[in-house]
Amino acid sequence: MAIDRITEPWSALLDAGREDGRLVREANEGPGRAKLVELPADLHPDVLAALARMGIEHLYSHQQQALQAATAGPMIVTTGTASGKSMCFNLPTLHILCEQAPARALYLYPTKALAQDQARALAAFGLTKRVRPAIYDGDTPREARSQIRKSANVVLTNPDMLHVGILPNHAAWAELFSNLAVVVVDEAHVYRGVFGSHVGNVLRRLRRIAAAYGTEPIFLLTSATIANPLELAERLTGLEDVQLIDADGSPTPRRRIAVWNPPLTDEALGTRRSALGEAAELLARLARDGARTICFMKSRKGVEVLSRLVKQDLQESHPELAEQVEPYRAGYTPQQRHALEQRLVRGELRAVITTDALELGIDIGELDAAVVVTFPGTVASLRQMWGRAGRRGRGLAVYVAGEDALDQFFCRHPEDFLERPVEAAILDHESPLIYRAHLLCAAHEGPLSRDDGEFLGPRWEAHAEALQSAGELRRRPGTILRESYVPGRPGGYPAAEVSLRSASPDSFAIVDVSSGELLGSTEASRAHATVHEGAIYMHQGRSYEVRDLDLERKRALVAPFDGDWYTQPKSETDTEIVRLLDRRETLGVTLSFGEVSVTDTVLAYQRRRLSDHAAVDIVALELPPTSFSTQALWFELPDHGVLAARDGEDARDSSAPLPLQTLLGALHATEHAQIAVLPLIAMCDRWDIGGLSTNFHPQTGTPTIFIYDGHPGGIGITRTAFARFEELCEDARRLINECPCASGCPSCVQSPKCGNLNEPLHKAGACALLGQLLAAGAAPALAAPL
Ligand SMILES: [Zn+2]
Ligand SMILES: [Zn+2]
């Protein structure tokens, strides 16, 4: 549009991108007009007065719908970024607190920073007589705690604190539980995977304890746009008939969307100019052309490097602008964060470069441009980040692709991603290890009895019996109906042994020897592969080198690392099918889902240069095998089926056996491609998934590919993949088919976490194999065998 060219500070940049082909896709969003409604007259007069003081004369239509829905039962709101979602739960909550003096509300936030923001937002209503919010988390001073328990009527906390601090001490919180009217779960899409499976149990324990004190709070949830908001809300809370509020009544700016792919530097190898260098150029240009920009990156180190590159670029031509570029990371104090946010809002900063610390809901107002560097893992996050662009009704949202498979796939099919929410937030509160850990916590909070089926699900007693056999629970006799289970070891504190961020209590501590600080922990099943001696370990975007892995004391000693390499473990994996749970014939193969036992032996690790991924050397390790049980899907290929998967070169005599290396390479590359695209179906990281392919599996007797959940017990990822296997094959085939490389690259079949160091891989073979499966699916259905 001509007007566009004249007025927008990003027009020149887009013109340049169009010219040299780096701008691979453009789209427009919005503008959308606001749907405003009158303030409801039946809202409590104090709340109405507060809104008047704040200058709010109307509501958006979805806020009014939420207000109505909240009187009827649980609900989840999934409108866009900056659509005023918090009003959707704040208004009903404030109304209730003003109406009923003793009523209490509990707000759950995944991070402390978000809880602080919400406390500020609540304070802004100025309802100091009626509303007394307080943050209760690990930073709350001891001396303030009992006062909060007594007098705060909105407690803002996180699920970890609820799990380990509040529920086990419910007697001290009797005031809260006996008056608990509302539970708010903001940013609910964060509760997926392992974390979500835990939080699903914590919320059930919360409902159970509330019921013991005679209350049944309403649950008000919000989430980013995902494929399955109702399912997420129901799985998290265990409640049914959740209402969905998704018709956004807030105005949306006119937003130009730009997908930017760094140019190829070597077509055959599939290497591209780095996304970081590309982003630096974009940011400097936007700064010079007058746009206020926010840029998102995954790693803290990336944030530092990118800030430096942009400043350098600007230093020569516009030294005054170089001063207005700042990095922003997690780990700042609230004061530092606030100061930076203020500079941003006031326009004293031209560009801020951040990890996702700013992604979740924090109020910094809107900016001209939002630049996202490399795929953040889910379209939901990408959209949230893009939602920052749109100051004064217009904005630019850019995505700069990296070389990873998912990035390049996205670049080729942006419309697939942008037109529909593709990912579902997956969690499984009944994943056995997680469920049983929380059942123990629940027993500690109060004896388990028949009535608990309502909160803990119909199968709780079977799990309780298993725990009784293990000596963890004890059956306390009573009449048939009053029989109950109590902890096997009185005086224990089971919640302290359960981390909500890990699938198994069996974990290794990771300790920074330079500071003595405990960085975190890793599941025991992954420790050998991730924190073996010499491993480069990433934690919150920082690199550490593992100095020692102490198997006896279960800890890894690490030190900050600044070198130019990363490591990749080489391991040998076996899978054993333990129990078949489901099976179907599809695409000409037998597809199964069930429990497997995965045994891993880490044999060595390879060091690779960061700059070009070149292998530096390989170092042998001596580690015992580890095993864990989990869920998996696997599919068996008939021998003759794989024969047809040969590539052109071998096709002269189709009856001759396929060279073993080609067969193995085709299976292996297929497995990698499927794992690479699985996050498009189930919100997860490729690091959450493992795979194994073999030309002969002793239990199936045929060539078989396994894809398994990387967490002990499994959290539902492969169950979803089993149900949507056809999509998985289709996406994997497109990923490989469309990659311009000659014989496999990091953007298609190579995997950064392959235990075989990406050997052997046969791109053409995988392509033929997947093509054959999909052709079998497309062929008219044959008569089903009887
Ligand atoms: Zn490729
Ligand atoms: Zn592999």
Descriptive account of the structure:
The protein is built from 27 helices and 31 strands. The longest helix is centred in the first third of the chain and has 20 residues, at 193-212. It is of the alpha/beta class and 786 residues long. The relative contact order is 0.09. Helix 24 crosses helix 27 (763-778). The chain is globular and about 75 Å long. A seven-stranded mixed sheet has the order 1-11-18-17-14-16-15, sandwiched between helices. One zinc ion binds at residues 668, 672, 751, 754, 756.
In short:
Helices cover 35% and strands 24% of the residues. The protein has 786 residues and is an alpha/beta fold. β27 and β28 (615-620) form a beta hairpin.
Mean of residue pLDDT values: 89
Regions with pLDDT < 50 over 5+ consecutive residues?
A: 1-5, 643-654, 781-786
Instruction: Tell me about the largest β-sheet.
Output: 7 strands, mixed
Bound molecules: zinc ion
Number of helices: 27
